[in-house]
């Protein structure tokens, strides 16, 4: 559990993440599973059961994001007016061959 952002991991520079799993993490701000603070290339990632108070229950992507073959399931944001239960993309994003299922935002 993170007091700030990125419950499972917080990447502050360009991130290249392949075949990684983020499960049952939480954040009191954004990015329950992970917070990508710059450009991100994510391939074969799995985000499940993560929770954030504000944005990006599974993950929040602040910079340009390229996401492929990744799964976002059962993630949530729980704060009033929160957004992006599965993921929140704040810049240009290319998402291919990925699954978003059973995520929720309140």
Topology:
Blueprint: E1 9-11, E2 15-18, E3 21-23, E4 26-27, E5 34-36, E6 40-43, E7 46-48, E8 51-52, E9 59-61, E10 65-68, E11 71-73, E12 76-77, E13 87-89, E14 93-96, E15 99-101, E16 104-105
Parallel strand pairs: 1-5, 2-6, 3-7, 4-8, 5-9, 6-10, 7-11, 8-12, 9-13, 10-14, 11-15, 12-16
Structure, described:
This protein is an all-beta fold and 106 residues long. Helix content is 0%, strand content 45%. It has no helices and 16 strands. It has strands at residues 9-11, 15-18, 21-23, 26-27, 34-36, 40-43, 46-48, 51-52, 59-61, 65-68, 71-73, 76-77, 87-89, 93-96, 99-101, 104-105.
Order of helices and strands: EEEEEEEEEEEEEEEE
Q: What's the rounded overall pLDDT mean?
A: 96
Question: What is the helix fraction of residues, given as a range?
Answer: under 10%
Structural class: mainly beta
User: What's the helix count?
Assistant: 0
- Main-sheet strand order equals 1-5-9-13
pLDDT below 50 for ≥5 consecutive residues: which ranges?
none
The radius of gyration is 12 Å
Shape by Cα distribution:
globular
What's the N-to-C terminus distance? 20 Å
DSSP strand tally:
16
Main β-sheet description: 4 strands, parallel
Strand content: over 45%
